[in-house]
Amino acid sequence: MPDSPLxxxxxxxxxxxxxxxxxxxxxxxxxxxxxLALAFRRLEADAEVRVVVVTGAGRAFCAGYDLKELxxxxxxxxxxxxxxDLAASMADFQGPIIGAINGHAITGGFELALACxxxxxxxxxxxxxxxxxxxxxxxxxxxxxxPRLIGASRAKEISFSGNFLDAQQALDWGLVxxxxxxxxxxxxxxALASDMASCVPEVLTxxxxxxxxxxxxxxxxxxxxxxxxxxxxxxxxGSEDVAARRAGVMxxxxxEDSS
Length: 259
Fold this sequence. Notes:
The chain starts with 5 loop residues before the first strand and ends with a helix. Strand 1 (6-11) and strand 2 form a beta hairpin. Helix 1 packs parallel to helix 3 (81-92). Strands 1-2-3-5-7-10 form a six-stranded mixed sheet, sandwiched between helices. Strands 4-6-8-9 form a four-stranded mixed sheet. It has helices at 30-44, 67-72, 81-92, 108-114, 131-134, 142-150, 152-161, 167-172, 185-197, 201-215, 219-236, 239-258, and strands at residues 6-11, 14-19, 51-56, 60-62, 97-101, 104-106, 118-122, 126-128, 165-166, 178-180. The longest helix is centred in the C-terminal third of the chain and has 20 residues, at 239-258. By secondary structure, the protein is an alpha/beta fold. It folds into two domains: 6-197, 2-enoyl-CoA Hydratase, Chain A, domain 1; 217-258, no CATH class. The model is unreliable at 75-79 (pLDDT under 50).
């Protein structure tokens, strides 16, 4: 439906979710937050879906919370149940989530981007955290995730000033993986998603879990966890399957070398 706040397109094991409120810079209305949460819950329950790409329609990725709704008192506060459900549903999705940042990602939209596993930015992407300017504290992980990603000092500069970070600086600071031409953004993200989806499904989800859980631990226990899971993984893998997959990896490498 053209008026739906969230569009969904599927290509094999890859699903693209497009925030579809371009007239409002894809601001997170309660309806859109609910739609995103429901979509991630449904996709997590679908064994055929392995990777999700999230992007925005029009010139913005997401301008944060819908200020009109907030002013009218129709969407609740910044920690309402729709926001909590969305945060939980994205955290519970076991496969990779790629953020295709096509334009402005502001405050709540910045937090939505940080909830993704990998960020690819258009040259038009711009990031800003305006919590301190608006007068509220973040509640969706921005204060903890951003410093871990780019360092505390850089995160403080962004959050304490409310200034915009352009795509190139975001790349230089390690916030995004790469910057591409606007017209190439979805093609690049879909190619990366297809590469991820072609990996062994149960190992792909276990690897994401291994990284995410390890980042919440001190290094020593995290390394012990990795060792234990590696041993279990090796014991569960059939030698013939591993050999066949290794041959496939080598053939893929030769194909890439010749292209």
